[in-house]
# Entry
Amino acid sequence: MKYISVFCGSSSGVEKIFTEQAAILGKTIARKGYGIVYGGAHVGLMGAVADGALSEGGEVIGVLPRFLQNKELEHKRLTQIFIVDTMHERKAMMSSLCDAVIALPGGYGTMEELFEMLTWGQLSLHKKPIALLNVEGFYDPLITLSEIMIEKGFLKEEYRDLLIVDNAIDKLLLRVENYVPSQIEKWFETK
# Structure
């Protein structure tokens, strides 16, 4: 594993712990020798992750759509930045550059990125670990919803392990590093 894609809010949230944990995650990833791929902005949790990694001499690659660059959201101190035309290009590039994904708290954009990677994993389009840093129980409702999806027959129980969840950064990264992809295929041909 070389690069971890971090999905998180362009806002900081109302609790200081979100920003603190984002910065610590960035620092910890850099100390472990991994690079970060993220959305390329200097604001919110995104900026905190990047600044944390950069403060430890880490490699940080940003992927920013041009319309957000025009709003002056580009982080100017990154190792490398790719400016793309669309959000779709951004997600595709972030996925192609990373070996694992970690989601911090965020809004609709974070959820959309997370669910796309989960869906692609479920469809065996990739075998990358996908993890949630569950800061202050932020993702507890999502975990409950996943269990309801299983209970109601909309998600197979085998897919529960597609999502790694922990509230401790070191434990989460260890689980990401030791991830063994499922051999389950959602659909397969029978002869």
